[in-house]
Design a protein that fits this description.
The protein has helices spanning 7-34, 41-52, 60-69, 79-95, 100-117, 122-139, 146-160, 168-195, 201-226, 233-240, 244-257, 266-287, 300-327, 338-368, 370-374, 415-421, 437-446, 462-470, 559-566, 586-594, 602-605, and strands at 228-230, 293-295, 381-385, 394-398, 403-406, 426-432, 451-452, 455-457, 475-477, 483-486, 489-495, 516-521, 524-528, 546-548, 570-573, 599-601, 608-613, 616-621. With 623 residues, it is of the alpha/beta class. Strands 3, 4, 5, 6, 7, 8, 9, 17 and 18 form a 9-stranded mixed sheet that branches. It has a 7-stranded mixed sheet with strand order 10-11-12-13-14-15-16.
Length: 623
Amino acid sequence: MRSGAPRLPLLLVAGAVVLALLHGDEIRGRAEVALGKGMPMREAALARGFVLGEDEAVDSTTTEDFRRSGLSHLLAVSGQNVALLALLAMPLLAALGMPLRTRLVWILGLIAVYVPLAGAGPSIQRAGIMGALSVLATLAGRRASRLYALAVAAAVLLVLEPGIAADVGWQLSFAAVLGILLLAVPLRAAITALIGAGGWRRPLADGAAMTIAASLATAPLIAFHFESISTMTLIANLLALPAVPPAMWLGMLSAVVGQVPGAPVEALNALDAPVLAYIAQVAAWCGRPSWAYLHIGLGVGGLIAAYASIATAALLATRLARRCRRQQPIVDGPKTGPYRRFSARRRAVWLVLGLGVAALALAGSLLTAGGDAAAGMPAGLRVSVLDIGQGDAILLQPRRAPAVLVDGGPPGDGLVAKLHAAGVDRLGAAIVTHDQSDHAGGIQELLGAMSVGQLLYGVLGRQMLSEASAARVPAQRIAAGSELCSGGLRLDVLWPPAELLGGSHRDEDPNSLAVVLVAHWRRFSMLLTADAEAETTPLDPGPVDVLKVAHHGSDDAGLGGLLDRTRPQLAVISVGADNPFGHPTPATLATLDAHGVPFLRTDRDGTISIDVSPDSIHVDDDG
């Protein structure tokens, strides 16, 4: 059938898509199991992160190494996965004797199946739409315009989910793709002219060009949103570059083969494990030096200046390269001699110099633009321990990023009004530490009354999960090792471990499984213990600046040891006035006094506000 792709592949692809939509959870579950067989725990967690975007089980040390080294994008499924999927499938389908048009139909189906299986996050949605548009353009016999595909992908996603433009991951994903589309080709030409194009040099030039282009394009946004930047991003990505495609391909093959019961995926995983271990080692080499991660404030003016410097330098380099080419005399015969090689190298040098200027200008913008950003804006992070009665509700407001609410207090205490009074009309995330009304009740009232980006929990009842689903708020379980970022704020989950969260917990004390977090902003840290008392919860986060005393100040035999380990400068107690439980107890207050830790309590001091700037911590209260 010359006018279109054969009907049989179309029907098979359609069937595969329907199967993925109907049984996606089962297929994803089998893939998770397959990616863990025969591999050490760390490498198995990394494989799930690389292929499925599930990074919850990656240990906190490895996650921090990836973040500080600039490799954290490998743990989030993105356009790279779609591209590698297509590159893997094309030769395999060709080996089966399929013509090009049939192969493209199959790849279109693979993309449609892979996107929901990988979690359907903003970056993978964008990558899937772009990949599908490129395949459809090829099927139609037209040359695909990647910039056009990017614009269409943006338009489609904005129509489907208008608020997605505020998602930092979505912004970074588009910036990276745009940078690659505009800068990768001239960079590849420059690198090829300098090192040659034969053998291994061509893929090295391709990978290096895309890495440099994406790094330049995303650096200003990273500094703007996260107020920090990795100095080792380029080096780390170049060192990891040879290992990333085989790690992705082996993981994808293992996930596919694992759909067959009893299939021997251990052989694939045995090959994948050392590749993943190498990438983790690169992250450790490049992420652990103290100078590998700089805290930099970048305002709107600095963001504009940084992108203007990159665009100006890139245009300048391109024009200089064209001028060099025009000034070369025309000679007869093929331009393959030393003169042609000199011309190419000269153009490459101009381009590298131009982008070097861009990098220097970008660095200057990042280092000097922090001052204007701070003017007229909050100091950096505001933590409000809300006066919510006998319960917990802690609001974290990082500068220029969505607020995060940890617990919401009991129902009926006017949480929505308190959030509006704090200037919050949308939450990036709401976290329920455990399913008791003095922590979950307020958040349950928020659902449907305020925009909430996601609901995170350890253990939560079906009713609240159903209400979240009805309000179209995605819900996700978190456990020790999970991480949440909003701008420069990072929340690390310390407790409970994932293995304790399975099964029924009807006969267990909910406090023993309460989610414990440590909040980081630059050098500031705060331990949020919910109701998890130290005598039953093993916690050792190291020194912190502020401690939220567990369980409203109830008796806690382990509090003294926790204070010795954390050495906080301040303790806060969220407690209701004249509560019937006698909280905070005299023993808890005596322990704080004995350790010389000053404390504030919401029943007497009202809402406690902690304003954190790069060089100071200011505490205020309503009392």
